[in-house]
Amino acid sequence: MAHRPLGRSLARISIWSVAVLASAAAVGAASIMISGWLLTGVEAANGGRREAAERSTIGDYFGGISAVFSGMALLLLVVTLLFQQRELRLQREELALQRQELVSSRDELRRSAEADMRSLHVQLTHMAMDNPALADVWNDYPGESPEVVRQHLFANLVFGHYLLFFRWGGSTEAEILEYARSLVRSPAFQRYWEASRGAKEGLPAESAEGKLFRLFEQAIQEARGGGSPTPL
Fold first, then answer.
1. Residue 24 burial by Cβ neighbours in a 10 Å radius (0-12, 13-18, 19+)
2. What predicted TM-score, i.e. pTM, was given to this entire model?
């Protein structure tokens, strides 16, 4: 019983094989007949086999010329593709330059906005330094005398000046640390630092403000004998 499906499969394969071979033979015979008919028609249209052969020879000459033109067309196509590739490369370079200009313009606008904000902060601080009643509005240093408040406000301006200078890349960390070591020798600045340390300790470590805070904190500890100068 198990051999019957196998036998049927072999029979079907044999039948399909014969059918395929018969179809291929029929297509080949039809192709030969159609080709002969076409050749006979071409010879009749050209006045006989000899006339057709002569015209075929003339056609071969034109075939050579056609090959030359085909080669020239291929060469022109290659040249065109090369020019297009060069144009695309130039366009990419131009777009890259435009992106750089946009980034530069954005940085300049940001710096201009920061400078405007800094100028406004300086003006407000000057007003608070000149008028103790206005300094009470900020109430950053409650309980301090007007003289100490003015010193704190001025020290904050100095710290902001170094922050802006450091953020814009005007000085390295080593240079800022040297400035800080000189500045923290002042007892007035140390009092300001103690009064403002709590507000600065929460600054993000990777921000410019956070880095500047750590540099000044290091300078303060060195000035108090709590540490030695650390090379950066």
1. exposed
2. 0.50
Confidence of residue 33 (pLDDT cuts 50, 70, 90): low
CB atoms within 10 A of CB 180: 21
Average pLDDT over residues 204-217: 88
Q: Token pair of 142, please?
A: 């409650």
Query: Within 10 A of 132 (CB to CB), how many other CB atoms are there?
Result: 13
| Rounded CA separation 53/132 (Å) | 116
Structure token digits, residue 144: 């301090």
| Contact call for residues 152 and 141 (beta carbons, < 8 A) | yes
Around 73, how many Cα atoms within 13 Å sit in the side-chain half-sphere? 6
C-alpha distance across the termini of the chain, in Å: 92
- CA–CA separation, 91 vs 122, rounded Å? 46
Instruction: Report the alpha-carbon distance of residue 130 to residue 50 in Å, rounded.
Output: 119
* Residue whose C-alpha is closest to residue 33's, from 21, 41, 45: 41
Cβ atoms 177, 219 nearer than 8 A: yes
Q: What is the DSSP string of 87-131?
A: HHHHHHHHHHHHHHHHHHHHHHHHHHHHHHHHHHHHHHHHHHHH-
Both tokens of 108, joined, read 């300049």
